[in-house]
Amino acid sequence: MKSLFAYISVLFLIFFGSVFADQKKVGFIYIGPPGDHGWTYMHDQGRQYMEDTLGDKVSSTYIENVPENADAVRAIRKLAESGHDLIFTTSFNYMDQTMEVAKDFPDINFEHATGYKRSDNISTYSGRFYEGRMIEGHIAGKMSKSNTIGYIASFPIPEVVRGINAFYLAASKVNPDIKMKIIWVFTWYDPGKEADAANTLINQGADIIVQHTDTYAPCQAAEKAGVYAFGQASNQESFCPNSHLTAIEDVWGPYYAERAQAVVDGSWSSQDTWDGMQKGMVVMSPYNESLMSADLIAEAQAMEEGIKDGSLHPFTGPIYDQEGKLVVEDGDVASDGMLLGMNFYVQGIDGELP
Amino acid sequence: MINFELIIGVIEIVMIATTPLVFASIGELVTEKSGVLNLGIEGIMLVGAVMAFITLVTTGSYIIAFGISLLSGVLMSVLFAFFVLILMSNQIATGLSLTIFGIGLSSMLGKEFIGIPIEGLNPWYLVILSFLIVFLVSYFLNKTKNGLVLRAVGESHTSAHALGYNVILVRFLSIIFGGSMCALAGFYISICYAPMWQEGMTAGRGWIALAIVVFATWKPRNVLIGAYIFGGVTIIQMNLQAIGLRLPAQLFSMAPYVVTLIVLVIISSNQLRIKLSAPASLTIPFYKGR
Amino acid sequence: MNSFIPRLELRDQNSTIMNFMSPVLAIILTLATSAIIFLIMGFNPIQTLYVFFVSPISTLSGLSELLVKAIPLALIGTGLAFCFKNKIYNIGAEGQLTMGAIFGGGVAIYFYDSNAYWLLTMILIAGSIGGVLWALIPAYLKIKFNTNEILTSLMLVYISLYILDYLVVGPWKDPLGFSYPKSRPFSEAGRLPIIFNGYRVHAGLYVMLTLVFLSWFIFSKTLIGFKLKVSGHSSMASRFAGFNQNYLIYLGFGVCGAFAGLAGIMEVSGPIGLLYRDISPNYGFTAIIVAFMGRLHPFGILLSSLIIALTYLGAEDAQLFLQIPSAVGFVFQGLILFYLLGSEILIKYRLKFI
After folding, report:
1. Is residue C81 part of a domain?
2. Nearest Cα to C95, choosing from C139, C135, C149?
3. Alpha-carbon distance C194 to C196, whole Å?
4. Structural domain count of chain C
5. Disulfide check for A320: which of A347, B122, B283, C48 has CB 3.0–4.6 Å away?
């Protein structure tokens, strides 16, 4: 019996012995499987980029499909207890769970995606995806023939509402007749339901489909119906080559590499990062040259440049809410505070927020 | 002013969205009619979906994918049948275990196949097939001798046994039919409805099928009505949203379940009607020795 | 030919030896099967089994996590035994759990800024009441209208989940939560205290152990337990003996509802601390398996809840240390369940080679 135990211990030592003493361990908590070609996929791409960039200085592991309940705490703790120096929790609903674990492990650094609660050892980070929505809105405004846009939204949270508003402001600027039809599906992930929503919108006259859900089902539905679509989170052109105009890609790699490097250097400190196109956290997929005119592509690229150098902001006043109240003064841009808590539609969008 | 084109479009979307529910519930109905409750629908659907997808990607043939998907449903249900009929394990616990097993097995098998683009199959073949199957099942159960035997087994297995019918065999075949229908639902989801493979992509439709069988009061043709109400509610709710109406989506989606509950109470309170519909031996195991 | 095929023969009496031996047999079979599977998948079977079964509970924190996971399972499983012993198949414990969380959570949210000492007690009582009320619906319908309780209790699961969804997306949304679908955090006085600092196991453990013990006492030493047993064995005999069937049905559902409701509110006021849509990883359904695996005996249920909890933890460790996908954990769990359920037959029947 004793020898068996010894055998197992030796096995274990051999197995984990490969870990260098000074190598930093980075752990990731994923909400879905890394192969989902959406949200989790992009985080995993970021993880791999980090490993490639930092080489032997870091090693990384992940736990996938972690539900957003009390189980998440266990998974995060598990990473903390197994010697990880830096832990990324990559979904909004891990916020309180990350707080809880971070309290018990003051020496370990945590990074929570898309949340707003920080402490000495928790940073938060997110992308300014609404910048991409502005470009999508511009393209849609120029390309829609029926002047009707179909928007598939997940939950009425600021992140999603911001996207809708940024999209609409840009679209209505180039096409005042543009109408938005919005369906809230109350899920991030249900390919069937997402396809149903896309088909419903197309049936109601939408000729461009925008989605803020995770799978490429809407884009496939658009392809089948012969209308245009924008991809979500990653480049989805391979699934719908004849309808995919562009997509907003979440590029986490450089950020992950930078933060892991900070841990290696011992310079990590808690901060709040909200980067956009300028830092390359938000990237537009290659514009579809067979569907879009060269002029339009040039316009979109010019907008990217404008956003990067700060001359263009998706929320530039005057902006009115649905009641006609001026929320952003002429010439001003919306503050980050307003953007982070955005819970109203801008003037011109029909219907009310659920 | 009524826009007919719009309405026809809505009906089409409802039919496409409802078909997997029809397959899964008609299969479960036959299984339940023979006196067996299979709570493993969701697991079988997922395995059927992933096997269909894997086969299509590797062979490129819809026919072979269809066959392999059905076969996987058969294998999953043979596993279930072995446990509940031969080992007489509890049907509820075994069905739930089968779901857990199916969720795991499907994600394990499909790991390398996520995000491979495929050409989806036109859903209308299977939409038509779903109607055909419902009417065939209805004919079988109500008009044929074997259908009568199946119902008798579900009603009272001891009497059926006394009359010389092979209770285990009847239940075995019913479970297999139910399982292959669930796999067919899975095939439809990953090949026609949303042509892709994603882990857990059936998103709870197997559980809705259970409710539909009850709503249908175990009558095959009512399965169509039940499935179309459950499937239609979501689509109608989406349409109302798209024209700018706001409603509490959750309460809207909840409505069919409340209706099912009420239907269940109404049919149960009438002794005669419950006798005509709900199988009396549901979940009761049969042992020949006594 | 026939002689090679074993035949089942009903034992005159349930085998006491097999009562204990069959789970052991099941575990041995599972270990053997999974060792083969791991070998085929290219993993070292001994090391893999070690990671699945030993490493998760080789630390204090691992043990604490095991208990956190087992508390709701054991509690609900024991409650279900009150129904299942009487052959009443309440499969709606998930709904009763959800209602418990809603009722208790409602109190906690109403008194969100209160620090009264009675708050926690109130919350727990409200949670149990919620569970009882939700459980009494199928009981009433069964008695009054002869409605099949399997189906009604299942329908009520869906309904309760939609109600919770509606509440956290709508009226109970945290006013300070940037309209994310979750409630206010409960006040400190509304949280279940943890037992050891730095570990997550909470006072719900005492509640669970007390109720499991109490249930054992009721089953084995009181008239009610005897009545449940007789009635489950033969409702005819029970009626001859003058036992009130309806009373036993109400009792079974009531106790199960109370236990499940309590499990729900303890999960919410313990490890989670607020309400949102995803509070339970199907505890109510998993507990059904736990109850049958534990042969409806409270101590057996306690043991099987620990085994099931261990499989969850093991699956995470396997991901972390061996990069085995989470799906394999589910397959593994499925195997254990099948073997445990299948081996039950040896208690009632013997194999005969004639």
Report:
1. yes
2. C135
3. 6
4. 1
5. A347
The owner of tokens 């490129």 is B60
Report residue B66 as tokens: 């269809």
- Nearest Cα neighbor of B36 from B75, B71, B88, B72 is B88
Crossing angle (nearest 10°) for helices C60-84 and C204-221: 40
pLDDT in tens, C192-220: 998 988 888 999 999 999 999 999 999 99
Q: Mind telling me how many Å the CA of B213 is from chain A's nearest CA?
A: 21
Structural domains present in chain B: 4-277 (1.10.3470)
C137: in domain: yes
Q: Tally A–B CB contacts below 8 A.
A: 104
Sign of CA dihedral C186, C192, C198, C200: negative
Residue in C with minimal Cα distance to B37: C150
**Mean pLDDT in chain B?**
90
Q: Å from B280 to nearest chain A CA?
A: 35
Cβ–Cβ of C178/A341 closer than 8 Å?
yes
Domain that holds residue C147: 65-292
Contact B83 C341 (CB under 8 A): yes
Task: Answer yes or no: pTM beyond 0.95.
Answer: no
Residue B11, C-beta contacts closer than 8 angstroms, at least 6 positions apart: none
Residue C237 has pLDDT above 80, yes or no: no
The pair of three-digit structure tokens given for residue B77, joined into one six-digit string: 């249900």
Set out the domains of chain A in order of their start, with CATH numbers. Answer: 15-127+252-275 (3.40.50.2300), 130-250+315-340 (3.40.50.2300)
Q: Calculate mean pLDDT across residues A236-252.
A: 92
Q: How far is A324 from chain B (nearest CA, A)?
A: 18
Token duo for residue C57: 């509970």
Q: Which residue has the tokens 């994923």?
A: A30
Does A32 contact B199 at a Cβ distance shorter than 8 Å? yes
- Shortest CA distance to C286 belongs to which of A204, B96, A120, B38? B96
CB A171 within 8 A of CB A230: no
Q: What subunits make at least 3 CB pairs under 8 angstroms with C? A: A, B
Measure C81 CA to nearest chain B CA, in Å. Answer: 13
Residue A311: φ, ψ to 5°: -80, -15
Give Cα separations from B188 to B22, B109, B121, B126 (angstroms): 11, 18, 9, 7
Question: C13-21: long-range contacts (C-beta < 8 A, 24 or more apart)?
Answer: C14/C347, C14/C348, C15/C346, C15/C347, C15/C348, C15/C350, C18/C346, C18/C347, C19/C295, C19/C347, C21/C346
The CA distances from residue C52 to B53, B207, C250, C334, in Å, are 31, 30, 41, 14
Task: Say if strands A109-113 and A86-89 run parallel, antiparallel, or are unpaired.
Answer: parallel
Structural domain includes residue C20: no
Residue B1 has pLDDT above 70, yes or no: no
Per-residue confidence (pLDDT) for residue A258, from 0 to 100: 94
Q: Confidence class of residue A343 from pLDDT cuts 50, 70 and 90?
A: confident
Query: What is the C-alpha separation between C109 and C123, in angstroms, rounded?
Result: 10
Tokens of C261: 């409701």
Task: For chain B, list the contacting chains (3+ Cβ pairs, <8 Å).
Answer: A, C
Q: Cβ contacts (< 8 Å) between B115 and chain A: which residues? A: 35-37, 41
Task: For C128-140, give the DSSP string.
Answer: HHHHHHHHHHHHH
Helices (H), strands (E): how many in chain C? 14, 2
Specify the 3-state DSSP secondary structure of A275.
Answer: strand
What C108-111 contacts at long range (C-beta under 8 Å, 24+ apart), as own/partner pairs, is C108/C186, C108/C187, C108/C190, C108/C268, C108/C269, C109/C172, C109/C183, C109/C184, C109/C186, C109/C275, C111/C187, C111/C190
* DSSP state string for B240-285: HHHTT----HHHHHHHHHHHHHHHHHHHHHSHHHHHHHS-TTTT--
Q: Which site among B87, B112, B246, B267 would you substitute to test the C interface, given the most C Cβ atoms closer than 10 Å to its Cβ?
A: B87
Instruction: Tell me, yes or no, whether C274 lies in a domain.
Output: yes
Count of pairs with CB atoms under 8 A, one residue in A, one in C: 95
Q: Does B100 touch chain C (CB under 8 A)?
A: yes
